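User: For documentation purposes, I need each entry recorded in a consistent format: the amino acid sequence on its own, followed directly by the corresponding structure tokens. There are two entries in this batch. Please keep commentary to a minimum and don't merge the entries.

Assistant: Recorded as requested. Entry 1:
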Amino acid sequence: MFVLIWLLAKHLPIVIASRDRLSPSRRLSRLLVLCSLSVTPLLAQVPPEGPTSEKAQKSYKEALEEVPKHRTDFALDGFKKADKQDEGRCLACQRKMIQYGLELHEWKTAQTAADEMVAEAQGDKSVALAHFELGIVLLNEGRDKHKDDLFTRAHDEFTKSLTAFANFPEALLADGKALAQLRQDAAAKAEFEKYVQLKPVGEPERQRALRYITEPELARARMAPPFAIDTLDGQHISMDDLTGKVVLIDFWATWCGPCREATPHIREIAKKFQGQPLVVLSVSLDSDEQKWKEFISKNGMTWLHYRDGGFTGSVANLFGVKAIPHTFTIDADGVLQDEHIGDASIEGKLKKLVARAQELQAPQKLLR
């Protein structure tokens, strides 16, 4: 029995413990939520108020203790309990309820918290933020359930947010996405253009919004999260810089046995598609930079590399990575097409996507 357990553990992905309520078929849709969660509007810089009652404070503290254990659903239950004990006036609880409600697709919980925020909001900035939060919940629920009435309600909330505080970039971007879902492309384009004017050149989200302006259909797609990194060989790349190429992102670490076993497979893919419109990017969760570099050199890993430092790294967080090895396949438009936890046969999918990328490149070559 011990030998059987050891063999199973040796070949299973490394996973952070969590009772995940989402089925595997919904992992990709969760990235849409995570993209929204990465928004940190200037309006939200002031720390939210915690619970006031003693019982609520205790429940809130216990919920916070579940977060580093990655027991998200337990944490959510705790924040709900604390908010109820505080009679629906705990802003910090409500923020957490929205955050983890979105992540777990607990739409009712997230919407209840956002409604409470709207009811309690005072002052233009607080009102703008509360309606923005409610809009984000409705937008993500609409994407999950494919319901236009939710997109319409989301647009209404973003409109209220912008009425309270006009120069709110994240509300403009989110409103553009809601309008795009409703096929109101001209109105969506106008919001994206306003957003671009308010954001600095070079920011990944601004770069993505520029693409939405010219290709509004992308705002309706399951796009890979926008990010920018400096790779091991000194290249500065962003997700949108890679438009026109298929991208395979491989999350791994040197301390992960299954990842080490999958390395020859990734190396084989990089070699097989060399010279074709495919980019392989390995994102390491290693904390030890030297071990990471030595492993790459020793194993002839000649493709692009970036060290994210752990499961809480910025890129891993954007993609919602909780287990490794974990790969994401992204097409030439930047749309998420597939993901796998553990080593998997992905060459067939890559071959089809690369062929399409080559077809898209052919007319461009003729015009040169």
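Entry 2:
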Amino acid sequence: MVVPSCRCAERQGFVDKRPDRVRRRPAPQRVRPSVHRILDAMTGAPAWVRNARMDFLGANRLGYALYSELFTDQVRPANNARFGFLNPRSQDFYAEWESAANDIVAMLRSEAGRNPFDRNLSDLVGELSTRSDTFRTRWAAHNVRFHRTGFKHLHHPIVGDLDLTYEAMELPSDPGLNLLAYTAEPGSTSEDAFKLLASWAATQVADELSAPLPVTDEA
């Protein structure tokens, strides 16, 4: 995988170029054991933890099962932005892909405004801008927003269509991390699909999805 340098990204105007600050690569973010225990205790709803650049950092068994398509990519940690713009499977997984793509770019743009010297973030934006015309066009629109609740319409390759409500909750002791949980309307076909997903998840090993692979998105 070819990842453009920060200098390349600067030439394209995707990162802050002010000379008075130096971009630094932050320490890798981790999910604390107590948060893992909370995730594992949530047995009836998919839940996962992400950071501001949309890395998939941890989940419960249903969370891994719901987002199993992200792990078809070989880069770890799995990243929702990279999946959304560089993996063709995302257009099947996100039933409303255009809306999902806009939300992904808006969240990255918002984080770039809050933390313009995050080297990992600028590298990700540079890579997506170089490899995806669709991302580059949306990035130039300068849309910024962050939804803490809403609806997701997904098409899972095993259980089919899912219409879900989600809540995004900040982890106050872990700046930049959010826990997301999903529910289905009681009595709906999506709730039935959740039950099928749980049965499928029971046959899968979450550790196989989250197992470390060579990290190729960092210098």
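Summary note for entry 2:
The beta strands are 47-50, 56-59, 149-156, 160-170, 178-183.
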